[in-house]
């Protein structure tokens, strides 16, 4: 089950919730009870492995 990061625009409360893909997003803050919550998106870590990804690798001719 995916974990989503949320932040309240009203009070700044950060929290995470495990939700199914079919669940509706959370909109009400559990701390201040205002409808000011939005999902926080972050970059997905990418790791390149293997030949050809590094500057020190020899380029193919």
TrEMBL record:
Pfam families: Zn_ribbon_8 (PF09723). Residues 1-42 form the Putative regulatory protein FmdB zinc ribbon domain. InterPro entries: Regulatory_FmdB_Zinc_ribbon (IPR013429). It comes from the Bacteria. This is Zinc ribbon domain-containing protein. It comes from Bifidobacterium reuteri. The lineage of its organism: Bacteria, Bacillati, Actinomycetota, Actinomycetes, Bifidobacteriales.
């Amino acid at each position: 089950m995916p974990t989503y990061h949320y932040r309240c625009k009203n009070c700044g409360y950060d929290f995470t919730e495990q939700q199914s893909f079919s669940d509706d997003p959370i909109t009400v803050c559990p701390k201040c009870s205002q409808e000011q919550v939005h999902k926080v998106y972050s970059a997905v870590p990418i790791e390149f492995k293997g030949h050809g990804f590094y500057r020190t690798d020899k380029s193919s001719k």
